[in-house]
Amino acid sequence: MEYFDTHAHYNDEKFDEDREELLKEIFNNNVTKIVCAGYNVEKSEMAVEIAGKYDFVYATCGISPNDTDDFSDDKIEMIKKIGSKNKVVAIGEIGLDYYWNKNNKEIQKKIFEKQLEIANSLKLPIVIHTRDAWQETLEILRKTPVEKKGIFHCCPLNQELIKEAVKLGFYISFSGNVTFKNAKSEPCIKLVPFDKILIETDSPYLTPEPFRGRRNDSGKVKYVAQKIAEVLDKTEEEVAKQTYENGCRIFGI
Ligand code: NI
């Protein structure tokens, strides 16, 4: 059995101490594909660097809605440049976050839209981060459609959002949050066609049960697969295989 962790941040400083050994160990534990997601210019460059070192790691580049503080048009140009590098498989994570940042909605929208244009010009899919802003996120995606579609990463467990996202042709990526006790994840998981489901860890965050509170890593993506298998009445192996294929398809790997 092999797993594809479609979203992790090995560019986070929490991995500075042991990145090399950890990635080796993860690969030996059958997580044989990982996408390392960027969220600002510096971390996008670092994601590409890490992807360059490990065959099984790929990268995304983008400016997240929580990294807009010192925004300039130059940064958009830099993301475009990084996006054309080897092993960059998507523009992301990008989107809107009105939970952490309520006071700069217009600038968040502008940065999101500009990066949708980058995705279209580079013919790449997008990786979306959306929090407390799902309607506005969908509105922008309808206004500026992305040719290669993309992924709702760490998708909020909101049935309305999932229905609409699937209708628009997007993939839904579930993370450790589906394992949390009060998550009500079952109806959400059931809404997604099997060929549109992805699994991720969002490491070092969102550690699944029963390890909640500790640093997360891709080795724990299997707990997300297990939860989905339980809900869909499939084997963990079937879920691992299908989500692996789905990940390769959307990222063009
Ligand atoms: Ni993330």
According to DSSP, the number of beta strands is 8
Task: Please count the helical segments.
Answer: 9
What is the level 1 CATH name?
Alpha Beta
Shape summary: globular
Task: Tell me the strand order in the biggest sheet.
Answer: 1-2-3-4-5-6-7-8
State the major sheet.
8 strands, parallel
Q: Which CATH architecture?
A: Alpha-Beta Barrel
CATH topology: TIM Barrel
Multimer state = single chain
Q: What's the pLDDT, averaged over the residues?
A: 97
Name the helicity range: 40-55%
Uncertain runs: none
Task: Tell me the CATH superfamily.
Answer: Metal-dependent hydrolases
Structural class: alpha/beta
Distance between the termini: 19 Å
Description:
The protein has one domain (3-251): Metal-dependent hydrolases (TIM Barrel, Alpha-Beta Barrel), CATH 3.20.20. An eight-stranded parallel beta sheet has the order 1-2-3-4-5-6-7-8. The protein has helices at residues 19-28, 41-53, 73-83, 105-122, 134-143, 159-167, 186-190, 221-232, 236-251, and strands spanning 3-8, 31-37, 57-61, 88-97, 126-131, 150-152, 171-174, 197-199. It is globular. It is α/β, with parallel strands linked by helices and 253 residues long. It contains nine helices and eight strands. β7, α7 (186-190) and β8 form a beta-alpha-beta unit. Helices cover 41% and strands 17% of the residues. α2 (41-53) runs parallel beside α3 (73-83). The model has no long low-confidence stretch (mean pLDDT 97). The longest helix is centred in the middle third of the chain and has 18 residues, at 105-122. It binds nickel (II) ion (NI). Nickel (II) ion binds next to loops.
